[in-house]
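Our consortium's second objective concerns turning raw sequence data into structural hypotheses that experimental partners can test. To show how far this objective has progressed, the report includes one record in full. It was chosen at random from the queue rather than selected for favorable results. The single chain below, 565 residues long, was entered without modification.
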Amino acid sequence: MNIRFKPKVFSSLFYLVFCITSISFGQSDPTGERRVTGTFAITNATVTIAPGKTQQGATIIIKNGLIEAIGSNLRIPIDAQTIKGDSLFVYPGFIDGATSIGVLRPNDPERPANFDPSNPPDEFAGITPWRSVLDHYDIKNSQINDWRKVGFTVAQIVPEGGMLPGKSAIVTYGGKESNNILAKNTALAARFRSTGGGRGMYPGTQLGIMAKFRDLYKNAELSSQHMRLFASNSGLSRPEINKTLEAFFPVLDKSIPVLYEVSNDLELRRAVMLQKENGFRLVVAGITDMDFALDAIKSSNAQVLVSFRLPNDKTANSNTEGLSDEMKARTQKVKDAYIQILGEAGKLEAAGIPFGFTSLGGRSNEMYKNIRLMIANGLSENAALAALTINNANILGIQKFAGTLEKGKLANMVISTAPLFAEEAQIKYVVADGYVFEYEVNNKKSNNNGNGKAVDLSGIWDYTSDTPAGSSGGTMEIKGDGTSYKGTISYDNPSGSGKASSPMNNIILSGNNLSFTFNVSAGGMSLEVSVSGEITDGDFSGSMSLSEFGSFPFNAVKKPNHLNQ
């Protein structure tokens, strides 16, 4: 785990990161990863080739990771493994427009004795555009399984860090024996935050970051011109090689875009301002408030990635009976704002702006619920499917081999038990790079533990985890609260010996999948921990995500009821 903390302040937090990040609960693993012959036939299925284009009773033949044929009355190869598609629905595999799943944050460098915060070296200021995200990518990260289980087969992974953390890459979520890399250096990642912003060094503000970006971009243009002139003429001084400026060269010639993560319409406008000044290709991820964003998007020809994460709906769905007029008015404002957010994706579709989905800030177990809410508030199902498939393929430039189901394209697909966005739909198979992952599906919509029995979540659960920092454990105490749950989780105290505890927030039990978050305070920092996974016969198993620090395996067992008294 590539994390460096000041020893006195963060030594226990370092241990905590490894220990509590083992608290996520894993998804049901596939029953097998199969590619024995490399040839498969999915027969008699309802196949959506692309949004709005569906074939009934179709057969798909897959060979060596590629789609060999789609149609009716196809001759099935003698060596093919057959998947009976009767009553199943097949869609193109999902593409994540931008994600940090599996990406670790690089170590911060040690400050030299003569460090000048007003003019820090690039690496101290979060300016590392030469870095490749692949150097910090853990292909074995357990959260990759979580996202593949809901249908993702390809993803653009983006680096962690400051204002210019490095270059992204495109990977597939396929077989273990493959490196799964589709393309390197696909975009220059950028953010309106600096590694040094909170430590009193330049550039520490958004305006400072904008000024620094302009300076780097213009100097990169001058450096590129100097290098071209030196290569074609004699009598010129040799240009100095600067790895920061050289990393901008693919952006200058528009072979890759700048992928700007934005959190509000002000950051969007600032990204668009930089694009208009310099002329680079722009992709924006995480935009909100479409009423203010649409004109900026259109004027810059920016490509758009929308997070499917939505705010908590507890206040929006709260009962206002018995409240004062003032509290009713406040609650109504929250409800109105929530409804407006649900309709943002639909506004993009209505404006004729194609967009893709990004998992940045989202959770796999909430994806379908949130997309269904967007559909209920103005987004069409075809546009939602396009945002998961062909639109992201176009944005990433991989439409020749991904995004739709066609002969010669990668065998990436999602196979569900019902139309994809129906509430009863469950993912039965995911095919990624020709590898078939099979998942258990429940016959009942009610919460159950995989054996038809209702999940009994309330009680005390003991968890243990083994990490590079050693073994640790704690407890989770969960109680029913009407139709929802509340709980408390304990963990090793990062400020010293003993245990600390935190409320469990956003507890969601869907089927036998459980998710929640909790916050840990250490060394003046507040870290949100995201937990998601599966319950089987009183056992939890899975992984926990701690911000950019990654995810780790977890095991928990519920105490017998007589011990919970």
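The partners drew two points from this record. The first strand starts at residue 33 and ends at 34. DSSP finds twelve helices and 27 strands in the chain. Both points have been shared with the crystallography group to help prioritize constructs.
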